[in-house]
Amino acid sequence: MSDHLTQTESNQDENTTNTVLEITTRQLGKLENLLEFVKTIGSTEQLALAGLLATQAGETIAVADLIPKLSVRTRSNLPRHLRQLEKAGFIQIKEWQAPKPGLEPEPALVIFNPDYARQAQSMISALRQVITLETEEARPLVMDERAATIKRFMRDGKLVGMPVQVKRQQYILEEVAKTFETGIRYAEREVDAILKPIYEDHCTLRRSLVDFKYLRRENGVYWKENPVLAPA
Question: What is the pTM of this model?
Answer without folding.
Answer: 0.41
